[in-house]
Amino acid sequence: MGELENNMRLLQKIRSEENDDFKVDEDAVFTEYQKRRDNKANLAIKILSIFGGLLSSLGFLGFLMILGIYNSTTGMFVVGLGFIIGAIMMTNRFEKLIIDTFGVSCYILGFSLFVVALFSFDFREDDVLLMVIVLALITLFLVKNYVLSFISMLTVGVCFILLIISNDVYEVIHVYTVLYAVGLTFFVLEEGSLMAFAPRMLQLYDPLRIGFIFSFLFGLLALGKEGLIPVYNGTLWISSLVIILLTLYMIRSVLLDFGETQKKGNIGFFF
Questions:
Q1: Where does the source fall among the domains of life (predicted)?
Q2: Taking CA atoms, which of 61, 129, 148, 192 is between 20 and 30 Å from 235?
Q3: What is the DSSP string of 53-99?
Q4: CA-wise closest residue to 140 among 127, 119, 154
């Protein structure tokens, strides 16, 4: 409870320095802290439980295959969407671990059926990837679940990389990396502003941040792993330069936040 106590002491200090107009719903703060702590504590358990739920769902999927669903593209499409919608409703309505993890498993299976059905409809690969991105963003907007938000963020990032590869525009990976680096920097530095602007960010901030980090790392992996994406070595400095500048900017912002203005001169010439 050390983090909560520190935050409450900080709120008390702010209250003492401000006038009577400054009000804080301490019960709401405590409740939200408990939810976020439980999400972090249960995340590893949820990830492990997904595999158990996934096996159970695969058994049900096998039953559907026996019924011949693979012979019906429309059937796969409808069942896939049904799994996705059901998973979103289930995870939004219930907060129990077993239902939560089963909902995530259903979502993964539904997404798999949805993608297979789209390819069976003879859609182009780019069209399928764009539709998957749209569905992931819709899920991100509707869902309140920690793991589903994280999966949706990863799905968007992976699909963008696949779009770059499928269209042979390999140098665009620099744009991807820079955009995610800028987005992650903004997301970290403007945490308070984002939560004040959209209170729903209180629930989604952690999974979105982790999703940003992993998506950014995927871009770095694509650049750093030789042969994965054939980019021209002479352009690698572009992403590196932007990342270095963003890192220096973050250091500067952190130092200023802590009142270390005297250290600004060490890196201030960049800004």
A1: Bacteria
A2: 129
A3: HHHHHHHHHHHHHHTTGGG-HHHHHHHHHHHHHHHHHHHHH---HHH
A4: 154
Residue 10 CA to its chain's centroid (Å): 29
Single out the residue of 257, 265, 106 nearest to residue 191, CA to CA. 257
**Would 2 be classed as within a structural domain?**
no
Which structural domain, as residue segments, surrounds residue 195? 152-271
Query: Is 68 domain-assigned?
Result: no
In-domain check, residue 82: no
Crossing angle, helix 97-120 and helix 146-166, to 10 degrees?
20
Tokens of 252: 């500067």
Let me know if residue 214 belongs to a domain: yes
Predicted confidence pLDDT, tens digits, the chain (271 residues): 455 566 666 666 666 666 666 566 666 656 666 666 655 555 566 666 666 666 766 776 677 677 666 677 887 888 889 889 988 888 888 777 677 777 887 888 888 888 888 888 888 889 999 999 999 999 988 887 778 888 888 899 999 999 988 888 888 888 899 899 998 888 888 777 776 676 666 677 778 888 888 998 988 888 877 767 777 777 777 788 888 898 888 888 877 766 644 444 444 444 4
Q: How far apart are the first and last CA of the chain?
A: 39
Burial, 261: exposed, middle or buried (Cβ in 10 Å; 0-12, 13-18, 19+)? Answer: exposed
Alpha helices by DSSP H, listed for the chain, are 2-17, 26-66, 73-93, 97-120, 125-142, 146-166, 173-189, 191-197, 201-224, 236-257, 264-267
